[in-house]
Amino acid sequence: MSFLSRLTASLAAGACLLGCGDPAAPDIPDLTDGSLHLFGVLVADSSYQVVYVDQTDGLPITRLDAVLSEVGPDGGLTTVATAAPVEGQGTSYAMVFEARVEPGRRYRVTVTAPGRPTATASTTVPSDFEITALDARGDPPGSTGLTAVWSPSAGAFRYIVNVRASPDCLTNPPICEGFGSPWAGVTGEARIDTIVPAAAIPADRTRAVEVAVIAVNRELFEYFTTGVGGPFTVQPKQNVHGGHGVLGAWVRRIRTVDRSTQGPAGLGSAMAVDQRLLRSN
Questions:
Q1: Positive or negative CA dihedral for 175, 11, 56, 87?
Q2: pTM for this model (two decimals)
């Protein structure tokens, strides 16, 4: 699986309501010091945050506690939420924080387990931004050209542009089911000019097309674009102290292209764009 496929699949961690699929299972190092492996993505606009915790020694985690804190300008910590503690004989858990994180602010997650080193990780959520222009040409939209422009997001290391058919969403639990295989591209600029493969968008013209721009911070992007698997494994770049893994963050903004009111579109024709700016939650 390419780094882009892994990245776009894993961006769903902690944000199942966005319907991007299940979080990818990262490679867990085989160690014997009892250290924990964390994988978390703080999602601006989501009403909850999730950090996945795994052991690295094959032994059960008998109890797990986790705290989400905001890091102040002076380095002081303010508790934002505490995950419900878990007890048992499991080897991996999802720690859920019922809290929102704000764009532009810095947060720290602290995870403790008896007999194991305390694991901590800090990350800054990219600042807010807006998609200011979108032109999806062709039928399906973007198949002969896609141009999207957005305001820069401070703290964004790269932008992931994702195109797919609008999903069907449930409110309880807040999960969306996607359709087709979404297309994704990566850019370091606040715009993209590209062509989307027609196969990425289902032929059902009653379903709108979503164009999402995801501002990803450096910790998360580098975790998925470094490291080598196979017999000579090199672990990816990580930011967990006292453990392994990553805590990253992203901000996601969406525009939709409504195809239901359009007649057959010729090559190069512009599709109507719903100008409502949809937020993640």
A1: negative
A2: 0.79
